[in-house]
Every structure is written in structure tokens, then in C-alpha cells.
Design goal:
This protein has 140 residues and is mainly beta. It has a single domain, classed as Immunoglobulin-like. Strand 2 and strand 3 form a beta hairpin. The radius of gyration is 19 Å and the shape is globular. The chain starts with a helix and ends in a 10-residue tail after the last strand.
């Protein structure tokens, strides 16, 4: 009985754990998802957050879905791009995805999928930048 109570306590604590089950990119690597988010200005950085990262292996490539969340009440007109890194933290050459347009509505979440370009890719960053909504005028 003396052993049973501590054992049950450990099992109960393990069952209450909120750690997601993933493959590929380790959970510990994403304890702070904000490290993966790169923005072009401080003001935009306060309006966005990566709130979840799901990974799996597909044909020996890391397949991810990143949940980008708005912490701002108005719609944001953005572009995003993934960059992949090898196990030593070096950028994998020629792996930049093209910039993708994104409208992120106030306080909304959006899932952004990406597939690693090679099996050497072990982690990523997500670059996000604002897109001007004002018409640009050209002078003669």
C-alpha cells in the first residue's frame, strides 16, 4: 500500500500532462514557439503568436502545421514564408518557400502547413511581414 499511493500519484500527474504527442521536431524544442516566429517590426510582433506546432514524418520529410494566432482586434494583411534549418542550425540553401499572402482576422487562428525540402531539415522559422493596404502612387 505504501508503494501504491506514490505510484498512483505519478500516474495521475502523467495523465494530466498537457504535452502534445508529435514526431519529427521534438516537443522540447517548441517549449517557446515564439522562437520560430520572425517578424519585420516590433509592433507586428506584439500582434502575433505561434500557439501550436504539429509535426509528422511524410516520406522521410518533416511535415508541419503551425497555428498562427492574432492578438489584435482588427484584420491584418500579411505575407509569410518558412525557412528550414539542419541539425547544426544552418539554413538549408535554396529552401525558402515563396511568400504567401494571408489575411488574419481579429483574434483569429490560422493553420499554416509546410513540408521540409530535404530529410536534413530538423527545425524551421516562420517569417511574417505586413503588406501595405494603401494604394501606392508613383510620381512622374
Amino acid at each position: 500500500m505504501k508503494i501504491l499511493i506514490p505510484l498512483l500519484s505519478v500516474c495521475l500527474l502523467a495523465a494530466c500532462s498537457n504535452r502534445p504527442v508529435t514526431s519529427g521536431i521534438s516537443v522540447e524544442q517548441h517549449a517557446n514557439y515564439q522562437q520560430q516566429l520572425k517578424v519585420n517590426n516590433h509592433k507586428l510582433g506584439k500582434k502575433l503568436a505561434i500557439t501550436d506546432v504539429k509535426t509528422r514524418q511524410t516520406n522521410q520529410l518533416t511535415d508541419i502545421v503551425v497555428t498562427l494566432s492574432s492578438k489584435y482586434k482588427k484584420s491584418q494583411y500579411l505575407q509569410y514564408q518558412f525557412t528550414w534549418f539542419d541539425k547544426d542550425g544552418f539554413v538549408i540553401k535554396g529552401n525558402h518557400s515563396p511568400w504567401q499572402a494571408l489575411t488574419l482576422f481579429g483574434f483569429a487562428n490560422v493553420q499554416l502547413p509546410a513540408l521540409a525540402p530535404t530529410s536534413d531539415a530538423v527545425t524551421f522559422s516562420l517569417a511574417v511581414r505586413e503588406v501595405s493596404t494603401k494604394a501606392q502612387e508613383f510620381e512622374d
